[in-house]
Amino acid sequence: MAISKVTNVYYVVPDMDAALAFYRDTLGLAIKFQDGDKWTQFDVGGTQVALATPAPGQVDPGQNATVVLQVDDLTATRAQLAAQGIAVSEIIGMGGHGSFFTCRDPAGNMVQFFARS
Q1: Which of 32, 53, 54, 113 is most buried, most CB within 10 Å of its CB?
Q2: Which Gene3D superfamilies does this UniProt record tie to the protein (predicted)?
Q3: Side-chain half-sphere of 29: how many Cα atoms within 13 Å?
Q4: Side-chain half-sphere of 15: how many Cα atoms within 13 Å?
Q5: What is the reported pLDDT for 62?
Q6: Is the dihedral of CA 38, 61, 48, 89 positive or negative?
Q7: Dihedral pair phi/psi, residue 34, rounded to 5°
Q8: For 17, left (φ over 0), alpha (ψ -120 to 50), or beta?
Q9: Which whole number is the average pLDDT over 76-85?
Q10: Nearest residue to 64 (alpha-carbon basis) of 3, 8, 106, 13
Q11: How far apart are CA 85 and CA 51, in angstroms?
């Protein structure tokens, strides 16, 4: 498994407008990419900091962050982790953006592995 970089860290937020007011207006971060009220991404010195609205059943907003690790071969990375007994999710496609899967670290924190399309 070869991790090439941290692509982003994101926070789940219950109110995208309020979060935008803080990160964009108060902190002065410039929006790099936005997908409606579902996802907003800022470039902070080459690392992406993003905001996401919660999906149904997702943990309470404000209680988590997810590190996203970019890999060259998503399928091989997933297989390698699964072979070590780590519970991994299915690979989920994000259209032209790429694909990802998740697992949890020993403390229960989510780790996301991502590969570009």
Answers
A1: 113
A2: 2,3-Dihydroxybiphenyl 1,2-Dioxygenase, domain 1 (3.10.180.10)
A3: 22
A4: 5
A5: 59
A6: negative
A7: -145, 135
A8: alpha
A9: 93
A10: 13
A11: 31
Which of 21, 30, 61, 72 minimizes the C-alpha distance to 48? 30
The tokens for 95 are 């259209």
Q: What is the mean pLDDT of residues 58-69?
A: 72
- What does the alpha-carbon distance between residue 19 and residue 41 come to, in Å, rounded to a whole number? 12
Tally of CB atoms within 10 A around 91: 15
Q: What is the spatial distance between Cα 14 and Cα 8, in angstroms, rounded to a whole number?
A: 19
pTM of the model: 0.66
Order the strands of the 39-44 sheet from edge to edge. 31-35, 39-44, 47-52, 3-12, 65-71, 110-115, 99-104, 92-93
| Residue 97: both structure tokens together | 């953006």
**Count of beta carbons in the 10 Å neighbourhood of residue 56:** 4
